[in-house]
Automatic annotation (TrEMBL):
The keyword Cell wall biogenesis/degradation does not apply. Coiled coil: none annotated. Belongs to the peptidase C48 family. This is Ubiquitin-like protease family profile domain-containing protein.
Length: 504
């Protein structure tokens, strides 16, 4: 081996040795912050001193280093305390009325044999006491974006009602079980309640989700997912569709442990099947190499035909499908505008709800009060937990009514116990007494004061009563958010609004 090769070999060995020494230094075990500080104090090595420095200066330098270290320890503990305060940690305090399942062999304080003073029985079926601070926490969080109603006087099972756009969520403040799911995610809670959620497709047709049970609630994302034992109902009804265990909003089924599979099987994957689809969106379709327009479509839960669009081409009477389409659009728009406001402004608003004419027509035709009550309760199913008291959410409720091919409007003020009648023809109070009596009983209003709106009686033709009612509903909608809204009849403008609303 030449001298150059031997020199290279020695250099390589030296570099490897240095790398190994560096690795051993980096592999030193991690020591907690406070221990590292204390260790640094005990192993303190002062800087190199000149000959003129005395022992007192060395001692002074060591004391300064110790004070700096203690300051760092205090700063670290304060920062740690602030981080812990940001996380929701319900303080668990056992209550004599709260019975927990405790093993007396493992806990000598609860064992009667070791502690004669303790002779209370433990019931494993009861749950821990909820934390009042945690209960106030959810109210404080949701007050910023949601409305909260106290319904303790109207319901024995639930005491709070959370309201947001297309969402009603009932929960019990005294028995709610709040669990922090993740310290890094604020606004998540585990809580038992009942959810009413309305979803809309691209044609504004509603679909309903009604669920009850244990929910995982994300207040920031406005998400309510069943997570635990729960029930999902069939559409807008009290008929049970699914009941059982849910995981993150998806039903799960237990599988025997003998099978080498996961404990839960998800039903979120749709099985293979033959789908027969009926599309009524009004879009052009191809039949036998010919392009044709479909003659039927559905918007705002109303079915329309080409002849409905033809109504706006001439002076024709508006049918109930067009009126009810406008009613549903106003309700949807009102809720969206309401929750776009700040909470302070929302407190000053008297909300209004418009009822479809189909419900009013069916109720007016029934002589049986119980049948009318069943129809009314089915329409307001989401308010069954508050015993169908509409004034829990709304201050006013409006009814477009058709009688003998003529449209008029009834506006109930639930707070003032009044009913206002708008009729584009010359109104007659005696003609509305039967219907007002039926609706007053359903609304739980006793002998409301009746009055005729001053803008009544302005119709001078035989077809425009529906346009007048729509213009009046438009003003009622605007009056929620503005005190300067005045009635103004503009048939041309309303004709365009309704045509664009039902057009595909």
């Amino acid at each position: 081996m030449s001298s150059k090769q031997s020199q290279c070999f020695m250099n390589l060995q030296q570099t490897k040795q240095k790398q190994e020494e560096q690795k051993t230094r980096t592999k030193t075990p991690k020591i907690p912050f406070e221990q590292r500080i204390n260790k640094g104090i005990s192993e303190f090595k002062p800087k190199h001193l000149n000959k003129d420095k005395t022992y007192t200066k060395v001692h002074q330098q060591k004391m300064e280093y110790k004070e700096q270290s203690q300051f760092r320890i205090r700063a670290f503990s304060q920062q740690k305390q602030i981080i812990n305060q940001k996380c929701i940690k319900p303080d668990y305090k056992p209550n004599p009325s709260t019975n927990l399942q405790i093993d007396p062999q493992k806990d000598p304080q609860t064992n009667p044999s070791t502690n004669p003073q303790t002779n209370k029985q433990i019931n494993p079926q009861t749950s821990p006491q909820t934390n009042p601070q945690a209960e106030d926490q959810i109210d404080a969080e949701i007050q910023h974006d949601y409305d909260i109603k106290d319904i303790s006087n109207n319901n024995d099972e639930y005491q709070k009602l959370l309201i947001y756009t297309n969402i009603l969520f009932y929960y019990n403040k005294n028995q709610q079980n709040l669990e922090k799911q993740s310290q890094s995610q604020q606004g998540q809670h585990k809580i038992r309640g009942k959810l009413y959620n309305t979803l809309y497709d691209h044609d504004q047709n509603p679909s309903y989700i009604i669920q009850e049970g244990e929910f995982l609630v994300d207040l920031n994302k406005k998400q309510f997912k069943l997570d635990g034992q729960g029930i999902e109902y069939q559409g807008k009804s009290n008929q049970v569709k699914i009941q059982g265990e849910f995981k993150q909003g998806v039903q799960a089924q237990r599988i025997p442990s003998s099978q080498n599979k996961s404990q839960y099987k998800s039903f979120s994957v749709e099985p293979k099947r033959i789908k027969i689809m009926e599309i009524i969106d009004g879009q052009p379709i191809q039949i036998n190499n010919r392009i044709e327009k479909k003659s039927t479509w559905c918007k705002y839960n109303q079915q329309f035909y080409q002849r409905d669009l033809d109504i706006f081409k001439s002076n024709q009477w508006l049918n109930s499908s067009i009126i009810d389409c406008y009613v549903l659009s106003l309700n949807k728009k009102s809720e969206e505008e309401y929750f776009n406001l700040s909470q302070d402004k929302r407190r000053q608003i008297k909300r209004i709800y418009f009822v479809t004419s189909s419900l009013t027509t069916n109720i007016s035709r029934l002589n049986n009060i119980q049948q009318g009550n069943d129809l009314f309760q089915k329409h307001f199913l989401e308010l069954q937990e508050v015993k169908y008291k509409i004034q829990t959410i709304y201050s006013k409720i409006g009814f477009p009514v058709v009688s003998n091919s003529h449209w008029f409007f009834l506006l109930f003020d639930l707070e003032e116990n009044k009913v206002e009648i708008f009729n584009s023809l010359k109104p007659n109070l005696n003609a509305y007494q039967n219907l007002i009596t039926k609706l007053s009983e359903l609304l739980m209003v006793q002998n409301p004061q009746q009055s005729i709106n001053g803008n009544s009686g302005s119709q001078n033709d035989g077809y425009s009563c529906g346009y007048h009612v729509c213009c009046f509903m438009k003003i009622c909608h605007k009056a929620q958010f503005s005190n300067s809204s005045l009635y103004h009849y503009d048939e041309k403008e309303m004709r365009g609004i309704l045509r664009d609303l039902i057009n595909y």
